[in-house]
Model the fold of this input.
Amino acid sequence: MIRGSTDDTTAVRLVPLGGLGEFGLNALVLEWEDHLLLLDAGVLFPPAEMPGVDSIVPDFEYLAERASRLRGILLTHGHEDHIGALSYALQAAPAPVYGSRLTLGFARKRLQERGVHADLRTLVPGQPVEIGPFRVHPIRVAHSVLDSLALAIETPAGVVVASGDFKIDGAAPPDERTDVDALSQWGDRGVLALLSDSTNVEQPGLTGGEDAVVPAFEQVLERTRGRVLVSCFATSIPRIQRVADLAVRALRPVAFLGRRMLDNAEVALDLGLLRLSEGARIPPGSLGGGAGGRAVVLVSGSQGEPLSALSMISVGEHRDVAAGPGDTVVLSARAIPGNERAVSRLISNLFRLGCDVVHPGTARVHVSGHGSREDLVELLRRVRPRYLVPVHGEYRMLAQHARLAVDAGLPSDRVHVAEDGDVLRLSPCGARREPRVAAGRVLLDRGASEIEDVVVRDRRHLSSEGIVVPIVVVDRQTGRLESPPEIVTRGIVDADEAAELAQEAVRLLAGALDGRPTEERLDPALTRERVRSELRRFYKRRTQRRPMVIPVVMEV
Ligand SMILES: [Zn+2]
Ligand SMILES: [Zn+2]
Done:
């Protein structure tokens, strides 16, 4: 039996490894004595200034060093920023994985792709599970993916409630609604700490319900002669359900397009969480004409991802769909910060094809899954925690969430804004910080292998400053130039100017290299260094750029 204690020797330690200071990368370790739980294991989608980086996962070194003490990994819901790094967490520290049916359904698919085995255990709202010295109570919350959970974790030092991503959405159907009564009951019993989602803290009021998108979709279906292509996150099953229902009512067939959309739809259909009769669905191959010409197509790629189905459609290169006049594309998602330009280009390309495009800037075709200020205050009022730790968001969101809580009446010494790697020790007697631990990011490329920071730095350097490759052939005996150097440049100036500059640089190199003392001429390493420094200086002076110079010195 778990009992609360008032002596300071027993405390919970919170160690955020990601998600406190950025959007995504959610991963937080909760510790009591020698027992660890990991809450979520998410990825961060790479920003545009990291060329060639496919995904970013938390550095799980801290976990790996304590692998034998990890009792379980708890997943709040099935978004990539909460489950996308699960296979890496499991490699660092294998442990049973707990989550709701849909969350585990999505996670299972990802783990299979990576060939990682896991012991998956289903959480059902209202049914607590014992994990080591902890007892975990899953609580249903409303979010843009179904089967999302908040978790009330009983520890010997008190109860910690993790909100997961949530909004209150009191008008949602029962299986999508936040169980506010359960949250209030925890408030009555006493909660040591609340970890609460900060994503939408800059939005006033209450976040709207999912049904708010229905009228705009009805209008689109009514006025569109051809196909209606709807792009949302492939995990947004409540949205997909509403769109599919409207399609069926309008006697339009439904199709799913794009690997992630197809995969997730299959998982949700299998679990009975997405309801669509077999006859209402058509395969992507029959979207060309007939009934397919009026289909409602749920398609992945709302973020303008370059290889997604919608991007291929927008440039007329998709195998099954050639969109054009008469078709409407609905972008039913907001652009994740960093993706705005890609999304904007996507919209322009679709208009260029003659499609009509409807997006959250022009119609209410998206509502957020995250609670706004009043949702956050309501959660706080119901849970009434001793301590609040804002989670999920950039530092500015965490800081504003802290202010909001203080305005709502929580004493400021009870609110703790922490960042990745900070360690908070919380007990009924007090809260304090402990020395920071290592927390960072691991960059992965398409093949999921690790990329060194320096590689990304080089790519960024190349993309902004260009490259110069001088080819120098010298006589092995004398060290003198065999022929004038050749210089290839890319990305510095336009072609004509580049050729002119290269000629000048060739003359400069010839003089500088042959004018050196013999022993320096005979050392290829010194020659390389000299070529590099001469050209760096030359191009900096003439172009105000610092191109990467890669000398090739050959001896003949
Ligand atoms: Zn999230
Ligand atoms: Zn989420």
